[in-house]
Design goal:
Keywords: Membrane, Transmembrane, Transmembrane helix. This is DoxX family protein. There is one protein chain. The chain is mostly helical. It contains eight helices and no strands. It is elongated, with a radius of gyration of 18 Å. The two termini are 30 Å apart.
Length: 136
Amino acid sequence: DPSNNWTAAGYLANAIPEGNPLMGLWSSMAGSPLIDMLNMWGLTLAGLALILGAFVRFSAFWGAVMMLFYWAAALEGGILAGLPLAHGWVVDDHIVYAVLLFGLGAFGAGRILGVDAYLENMEFVRRNRWMSLVMG
């Protein structure tokens, strides 16, 4: 609920690990109403679209981008600090989710168990073939 003044500022300003190579970027984003809105609405809309199977390629892409941002925010001390791989920067839940989301989009999962197959048969979408690029 946006009326409760939720903000990512506390996390972006205080919870990013020391030595994060993008610390300046995260600090500059802290307290930005645009970042707060994009985070809340991005997660909500991408999640709803994926649950419904609507515009799967588009929503899976942006969901994966968000996961990559969350992954980058958790980096500590650069690339070599991620070794050993068992608990490092490669084997991370955000990377796994990003790969799965890219896979959902690549395989057109919305046409199988979603409403994308129905939407693609609508006259409006048939007249605007570019829309089929964001469905799948």
